[in-house]
Specification:
Blueprint: H1 7-94, H2 97-108, E1 114-121, E2 124-131, H3 134-147, E3 151-165, E4 171-183, E5 212-215
Length: 216
């Protein structure tokens, strides 16, 4: 019977397997290290690129913020110029307000109503006078509110019964009244459809001619 000693062959096989195993581990570690280096490099490049983008965006945002501030400054200047232009236009249109005021009062004044004083303060007018009855005063308020484009929000301040003595010593009961109203600017006047009314005369109490007084 032939006997073979295989111990040296087995030992050689084990050694070869160990060498292959260590070579595989080394190769795997080398490949893993290379992949890690590549991944780290890629991430660093991506981070650097993103930082550059963020820097560019920050710069653009600062530029836009400055442009927004410039636009707001221009809008403020435009608003100031428009307000100044409106003020100039209002001043120019207000030059003839006294004429329109007297003209409208002469047209809207009911028969029998006498005016003693008309005082204007800015866009507000105070009308004082006498009337035969409260109905005439109500008609005046109605005319100023509905039939005149130059007056708005007329308001009766007072109506006090009184007696007027004429030069011939004749006495007549009257009502002293005060009315307050707003004057509409020429640029805001809306024409009122014409109505048929009886001609009225702008009259004043004896010795007290109606006048328009401007107060600062």
């Amino acid at each position: 019977m032939i006997q073979l000693n295989l111990l040296p062959h087995r030992e050689a096989a084990r050694k070869k397997n160990r060498e292959q195993y260590f070579a595989s581990v080394f190769l795997a570690a080398l490949v893993g290290g290379g992949i890690s280096v590549l991944a780290v490099s890629w991430f660093q490049a991506a981070i650097h690129s993103q930082r550059e983008i963020n820097t560019m965006l920050d710069s653009e945002i600062l530029t836009l913020d400055q442009q927004i501030k410039d636009i707001k400054g221009l809008e403020s200047q435009i608003s100031a110029l428009q307000a100044r232009q409106k003020t100039v236009e209002d001043v120019q249109s207000d030059r003839n307000q006294s004429v329109h005021l007297l003209s409208e009062l002469s047209q809207q004044l009911p028969a029998g109503v006498l005016l003693t004083k008309v005082t204007q303060t800015d866009q507000q007018v105070l009308i004082s006078g006498t009337a035969p009855s409260n109905e005439n005063i109500s008609e005046l308020l109605k005319n100023l509110a509905n039939a005149s484009p130059w007056f708005a929000k007329p308001e009766l301040l007072e109506s006090v019964a009184a007696t007027i003595v004429f030069p011939n010593k004749q006495q007549r009961p009257m009502f002293n009244f005060s009315v307050r109203a707003l004057i509409v600017r020429a640029s805001e006047v809306v024409p009122v459809p014409p109505r048929i009314v009886e001609p009225a005369t702008f009259q004043a109490a004896p010795g007290t001619p109606p006048s328009v007084v401007r107060e600062p």
